[in-house]
Amino acid sequence: MQLGMIGLGRMGNGMTERLREHGHDVRTYDPNVESRTAASLGELKSQLAAPRAFWMMIPAGKITEDTFQELLALADQGDTIVDGGNSNFRDSQRRYREAQAKGIHFVDAGVSGGIWGLKVGFCTMVGGDLEPVGRLETVFTALAPPDGYAHVGPSGAGHFTKMVHNGIEYGLMQAYAEGFEIMEHSEFGLDLHEIAGIWRYGSVVRSWLLELLHDAFEQHGAKLEDIAPYVEDSGEGRWTVFEAIAENVPAPVISASLFARFASRDELNFAAKVNAALRNQFGGHAVKTSGQS
To answer: Is the separation of the CB atoms in 231 and 261 below 8 Å?
Structure first.
C-alpha cells in the first residue's frame, strides 16, 4: 500500500523503514531530512495515488496543527489523514470533525515502541471510522508486532488510550526509580547493575523497562554518573491526571509520578537519574548530562 509519511524523526524514520521492509510504498516529507522523497506537502500529494493516506509523525502542538490545516487544504475527498503523534485526544476529535466536513477521513493512532520499534514492532492503538481504518489495516499490522495492534474505538480513542498508556508508564518508571534510590542509599553497598540484571529473570517485577534500566547501568555506570537528575514530561501524564480529575477517578500513583518529575528539576536525587535514563533508553529522549544546566 502507498503511504505518505510526514516527519522522519526517531519514530517516523523507524516506522518508514519497517513499512518498507513489509512491502509498502512509503513516500516521505520532512523539511529537515535530505533523504525525503518530496520537498513539500504538495509534492508528496503528487507522489500518491488516490485515495491517499497521509501519516503525520511529528510533535504534538502547533507543528501538528499547522501541518493538519495544510493537509486539509491539499487533500481530496476520500483521502485519509492519520495523526500518529502524541496529540491530545480532544484535539483529535476536533480535527476529525473538521476533516469530516470536507469529506476527508481522519484517524488517530497512538504508537508506542520508541527507538526499538523498527526491530521489535510498534504497539498501535487506532481510533476512527471503520472504512478508513479497514483500508489502512495492512499498514497498522505491518507496524505492530503480532497481536500488537487494535482498532480501539471511534475518533479520539486511539490517542486517549495512548495518553493513559503513557500515564501508566510514568507510574512504572517512578516505582523503579524510587526502589533503586532506596537501594542506592542503603548500608549494604549494593551493586544496582547486578540487581537489575537478576530481577530480569523470574522476578515478579521483571519487565522491558527493567531490561532497559540494566542496559542503562551498563552504558552509564551503576551510579549513572553522567546523567543529570532532570526528568522532562511530554504532556501525556498531565493530560491523564486532568482526565482522572474530570472523571472523578482516583489516580494517586500517576499523579505522584508526574509531580516527582516536576520536583526533579529542582532537586538532586538518584531516582530522577533512573527516570531520565529510562526515558533515554526506550524513547531516545535527550538527557541532560551532569554539569549541564
So the answer is: yes
Residue in 169, 178, 181, 236 annotated catalytic: 169
pLDDT digits (tens, 9 = 90+) for 78-115: 999 999 999 999 999 999 999 999 999 999 999 999 88
pLDDT in tens, 134-144: 999 999 999 99
Name residue, grid cell 480532544: 90
Q: What is the dihedral of CA 232, 238, 241, 246, to 10 degrees?
A: 180
Is residue 102 annotated as a catalytic residue, yes or no? no
Residue 169 is among the residues annotated as catalytic for this protein = yes
E-state strands within the chain? 2-6, 25-29, 53-56, 80-83, 105-112, 123-127, 149-153
**Hey, is 50 helix, strand or coil?**
coil
Q: Is the predicted pLDDT of residue 266 greater than 80, yes or no? A: no
Q: At what angle do helices 236-246 and 252-264 cross, to 10 degrees?
A: 140
DSSP 224-281: TTTB-S-----SHHHHHHHHHHHTT---HHHHHHHHHHHHHTTS--HHHHHHHHHHHH
Q: What b/e sequence results for 169-185 when a residue is b if at least 16 CB atoms lie within 10 Å of its CB, and e otherwise? A: bbbbbbebbbbbbeebe
What is the C-alpha separation between 275 and 179, in angstroms, rounded? Answer: 11
**Residue 9 in grid coordinates:** 524523526
Q: What would you measure as the largest C-alpha separation in the chain, in angstroms?
A: 67
Q: For residue 5, list its beta bridge partners.
A: 28, 55
Q: What is the pLDDT of residue 111?
A: 97
Decide: helix, strand or coil at residue 43. Answer: helix
Give the DSSP letter of residue 80. Answer: E
The C-alpha cell 472504512 sits at 131
pLDDT value of residue 268: 59
Q: Which of 78, 88, 79, 138 is nearest to 108 (CA)?
A: 88
Which residue among 45, 162, 178, 236 is the active-site one? 162
